[in-house]
Amino acid sequence: xxxxxxxxxxxxxxxxxxxxxTHLVHxxxxxxxxxxxxxxxxxxxxxxxxxxxxxxxxxxxxxxGEIRVFGKGLRALPxxxxxxxxxxxxxxxxxxxxFTSLNLQENVAVxxxxxxGLKRPLAEHLAQMKLALAGLPPEAALKYPAxxxxxxxxxxxxxxxxxxxxxxxxxxxxxxxxxxxxAAAFDRLLKTLRDALGLTVFMVTHDLDTLYATCDRVAVLSxxxxxxxxRLEAVETTDDAWIQDYFHGPRGRxxxxxxxxxxxxx
Amino acid sequence: xxxxxxxxxxxxxxxPDVRGDVIDHGEHLSIRGDWVxxxxxxxxxxxxxxxxxxxxxxxxGDLSELGRVDTAGAALIxxxxxxxxxxxxxxQAPDLAEEKRALLHAVAATLANRSEPQRSTTNPIVAILMxxxxxxxxxxxxxxxxxxxIGQTLAAxxxxxxxxxxxxxxxxxxxxxxTGLNALPIVALLTxxxxxxxxxxxxxxxxxxxxTIYTVNLVAFSFLREFGVLLAAILLAGRTASSFxxxxxxxxxxxxxxxxxxxxxxxxxxxxxxxxxxxxxxLPILTFVGMISGMVGGAxxxxxxxxxxxxxxxxxxxxxIALKHLLVGLGKAPIxxxxxxxxxxxxxxxxxxxxxxxxxxxxxxxxxxIFMVILLDSIAALLFMEMGx
Lengths: 266, 389
Description:
A: 266 residues; alpha/beta; six-stranded mixed sheet; 10 strands; B: 389 residues; mainly alpha; 2 domains
């Protein structure tokens, strides 16, 4: 397998604190995302995985702390530079967040028209290719999000996130709501794209199979911090009740067995 | 509009930007430079020209001088050489970096045996006729749905009224506060201003006949019979019908209505009845406030501009204006309220999946309810005139 992993850090989160009213979600949380890796973020419900993602991409203003993306503090930048920087990441939201009044190819064409300066017919032509790359059949391009199944919406949303060939891809529960075959195809697609495009991926997920199949490193959010962020083997052996339950519960063991079996076949 | 080229996948470490191009070497095409999104428009034009020149006949390619490449560029190369040839080439090209090889492979595999989606087209004249037919049909459908929904609401009302345990008092009171109490200031202010305007108009016209004193009758007559109820109803149509539609529509988009049904509850009981009843309580009250406030506006103009003192104003009211005018005005209020609420809720139920649809139906509910209010009001005016009320 080819990877362009390096020790270069694309995103640095330092002493991030998030508070909603009196409810403290993150307390001095630190996290690095390195170029070329697929970083999985796991944690129980309500541990602030999505809030962390939203803080990094600049949708949520943290209570305190510093987030540097490509070495720059996103929120301190003037709007134009911030927009330039934002074009270098793609975000896949949990529900897809496709524009409901546009069909799929128009959805994907939006960033191409707005940011790459393409004319509409060209952008839509290219959008069809991106949709195909995300595994959608040609006739889906003219459909509207309301006419599609959840899995197809996810794929279309991925195509839109990939429209500008971003450097970092943020995924919020990408395989939730997909059938196992679709989820496995998504895992393969993600790895292919990472290898082919040199993507860096930040993925919030609950899907243990995805975690074992794709992630280079796993960060565990617990007790308002990143408890551990390391290779899966190292994380599995961390001495923490929640981590032990998570990785050595029935589902965790099954996913681990599946991965071992796969790697023995190869 | 020209924009700076997009940074592309490795923008930050980028070597100098070399625009990609194609050179025809006779037996093969040399693909050179950067094939990235930033150059897409020009590269696409080049590709199309190359393909047009040789009428679809494809040639072998040479990727040895290929610079940076992203998915957009890879797709173009696939168009130029054909996806199968590209996949082969990606395997065989000797000095191709591994990640480029993987990218070209992925894109070639995607584009192999892929067809353009078919758009169906219709003759424009047929389309116009079709649109006219559809609109007409929709009009009848609209009426049918409205009558059906009114029937459903009345049936639910008849079922629930004798069963106090099923009354939803909290949501009813909340809806009364929202549609009635919160609308009081705006209704009072608006009718006060219109009352003053009517008094000014009356004074100007009646002055020629030396009959300015009848301004009092004009203001009282118009507000008791028409303006009080009409202004309040139109305001509520704009303020409340739209909010009902948007609220229920957003719930529909979010599948909350389906959830209500699967929980064995009836959305009409839960959402429509409290709103309809609240409107039927609020609008008469607002109408009464509107009548008083409009006459206060008229009285203020009379006192300030026409030297008719407030006590004189009230004396004329007592002498000339019968109670039936108040009842005629107030009697229309519950009917208008029922229609406005029902139309607002029905449009909410008609919303389909998209955000755009919420907007369309909100507009439609305001237009329909104002239309219905004015239509019914004119029919009522005719009826009352014939009856001599």
